[in-house]
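User: Sequence in, structure out. Go.
Assistant: Echoing your sequence, followed by the C-alpha cells.
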Amino acid sequence: MDPKGQNILFRSQLEQKDLMIQMLSERLNEKDEMITDLKETIKDLKETIAGLQETLNEFQRKLFGTSSEKTKQDGKTEDEKSEETVTITVKSHKRTTRKAKATREDQYGNLPIRKEVIPLSEEDRHCPYCNSLMEYVTETFVREELRITPAKVERIHYYQEKWQCPECKKDGDGTFAESKTPTALIPHSPASPSIVAYVAMEKIGLAMPYYRQEFLMQQMGFTLPRETMANWIIYVAENYFYPIYDRLHGELLKRDLVHADETTCQVLREKGRTAEQISYMWLYTTGNDALAPIILYDYQPSRKGSCAQNFLEGFHGLVQCDGYQGYNKLEDVILVCCLAHARRKFFEAVPASRRKKLKLLDINSDVAIEDIDLPDEDEAKQLFPAEIGLLYCNKLFYLERTLKELDPEERKQQRAVLEQPVWDQFWNWLDTIHPTGGSKLGKAVNYAQNHHDTLMNYLLDGRCEISNNRAERKAKSYAIGRKAFLFHTSEAGAGASAVMYSIVETAKANNLNIFQYLYTVLLYMPDYTNSSAGIE
C-alpha cells in the first residue's frame, strides 16, 4: 500500500477511536447522572420511609395505646427493659400554690339581696308555760340560698296614642298629634332587642346552635323556627353590628401590635364552591399594649395570604403569628413567630413512650415548673435530641413567666440579659443536629431554622409575647361553637358569625356583660345607624 493510502487508513482508525472514546465518555456521563439520580431517589425514599414509619408508630399508639398486659422478655416487661437501658435525670414538677377558695361574697357579691323574714306563727307567740303573749326581741340570720326565675317571654302590643285639637275641630280643621313609637328592630318582624340579644348570646356566647334553641323556646311555650333566628342574626349583624365592627377594625389598624391566626370552617351554599370545600375564619386581636382589647373575626373562602394582607392594609407594626407562609405577604410589618409552634414540633418528635412525662406550659398556666437546667454533654447523651430541643423551649417559657409582671421596657431589658444567651446556645446546638429530612425531628429542626429571625423578633419589643397563644385562645372560642353547629348554611351566615363573634369576644375581653351589651346596641342602633357619634 502506498504512503497516501496508509495515511488515509491511519486517519480512519484514529477517527474510529475518537468516536469510540466519545461514545464511552457519553455513556460514563449518563452513568454518573443515573447514579446521582439514584442517590437522590434513595435519599428521598429514606426520608419518606422515616416519615411513614413515625406516622405508622403514631397511628399504632393511638389505635392500640398501652396495653395492661405487657410482653415478658427474660422475666421483665418491655417497660422495665427500657427503664433499665436509659437513665434520665428530670427535674421534679410542682404545682404553684393555688389561690384561696373564693368566698360567697366573691362569687355572689354582684347579685341583689332580698331579705325574707320567716314570721313566728300566732299559736307559737304564746308562752307554752304561762300562756302569756310574748314580745318581739330580734331576728337572726339562718342561711343563704340562690333563687332563679326562668326566662319569661311576653307578647308586646304597641298602641299609638292619637290626639286632636278640639278648637281646630270646631273650625273643621283636623289637627292631630301622634305619640312617637320605638323604631322597629326588623321591619315586619316580631323581633325585639331583648329576644335577638338572647338568641345571639346563646348562639355565640354559649355555643348553642339554633336547633337546640328552637327546642328551648318550645319548652318556654312558643315556637320560634331556627330559620327565623338565623335570619334575625344575619340582619342585625349586617345592619347594626357591622358599623361597630368596622369602627373597631379602624381602631385595630392604629395599634402597634396585632396577633393573627386562622381556623377552618365549612359553608354549604356558596357561589362557585362545593359544600365540601374548606373555608377559613381568620381572627385578629390586639396584644399586650395596655389599651382596650379588640378581637375581630373575618370570614374568607380561602387561606391565601392576600386575605390577611387585605384585612391589615394600613397596619404598620408587629404581627404575632405562626409560621404560615401566607403572612409573608404582609408589607411594612415585622413578623413575630410563635415559639409554642416550634416547641410543639419538638414535642411531637419525642417518642410516644417518653412524651407522656413531659408538659407544655404556657406563661399563664396554673401549673408551674421549677427552673430548668440545660443539659451538659454527659446529660445530653442520655436524652433524645427532640427532648433537648424541648428543654431549650421550656427554659425560655420559664424565664418569660418570671418576667410576666414587669413593665414592657424592663421586660425587654431582662430578656436581653436572661433569654438571649439561651437562644444563642439553642442555635449552636441546632447546628450540630443532622436528622433524617422526612422525620419529625427533621421537620422540627427545619421549622426552627427557617424561622430563625422571626422567632427572636419578640425580643425587639417588651409588649410582644413569646407565643401566639393569645390568638389561639380566640380561635378556640370559634372552634367550640363550630363543633356544635358544624357548618354555616350560607356565605351571609358565615359573615354574620364573624361579626357577631367579634362583638361578643371583644365585649368579653373588656369585662362587659355580654347580654346587656348586645341588648344596648340593638336598643339604640336602629336610630344611630347613620350617626358616627352614636356608633362611637
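User: And one key feature?
Assistant: The mean pLDDT is 86.
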